[in-house]
Amino acid sequence: MSFWAILLATLFLLQLGWWGALIMRLSGEMVDARFFELDAEQIVAERALEDAMSAGAPLRESWSQLAPLFPEFALVAGNTQHPLKKSRKTLAALHRARMSYRNMVFGEATLFFILTMLGLAFFLRTLRHEKFLALQHQNFLHAVTHEFRSPLQSLRLAIETLQRRPDPKRATVYASGMIEDVDRLTVMVQNMLDVGRIEASAFEAKPRQIILSDALKPVLERWRQTHIGQSPVVIANLPQEVTADVDPATIEPILRNLLDNALKYGEGNEIHVTLAQGEAAALLSVRDFGRGLARDELQHVFKRFWRAGDERVRTAPGSGIGLFLVQELIQAQNGRINAESDGLEKGACFTVTWPSSAEAT
User: How many CB atoms sit inside 10 A of residue 48's CB?
Assistant: First the structure.
């Protein structure tokens, strides 16, 4: 597609160059034709001047009578063969006409050239963006397919095992694993439904003043329970006095996705969850000590479907919408989120800032 766009732009520019050359040639011919007309008029004026002089009138007196009829010419003193010449005013007008045609051609050609280049640049940029979105969509489909297939296969294997080899002692273990798979599917489906609601403008945040620790602690405990056996040590510092204007319904998806992200890329290291009261704001930080983020990755980390190009990231579970969902939910309630990292292998910290209008009573 880009080849054909460049080809069409090249053909257009060639056509533009041909048009400019044609206009320049025609304008030159028009000025030359005017010169020829003036030459013919000069012959007529000189004959009229000869006729007036043949009647006995002096040269200057004869020309003073004829000058209003031939304003394009001036008298040349001392030249009896060609007593008239084109006046400076006439020559200046012809020069201005030639330059005006030339400036018109150059001006219009430059304008069309700039518009063509801008259009081509915009088209190529749009094309690259479309390719990027198509690649993101493809990666998302692959990731979601894998995310659905893995727990479904695990569920099927557990059910078939229970059918073929009924064992009450193992049933509890299998049931626990099946619940984990169902929870994983539920979280992923809920994330996609939330993203769909946000994109369809069907989500409206309803923030109100709450004590954040009271809302965060149950979510953190549920996350720990659903990740028994695979979660690293989570060190939480959630002081009771921190308040903020928050939609309580968004607390769970925000904290859950931040913890899931820290679990996936924390490489088994500790996860620190910290809550603090700032000036007219409450700050929640989730820090991991794993893979970290490169400088050029920080500007993309909240984009939908985006995942870093590292092999560990591509093979880690996830669909690339968790952090995008977190950002959308936070911005919907006048908050903001920031990602920080000192570089690869140095971990990452995600800080959520919620506005706080007053202290809780």
Answer: 17
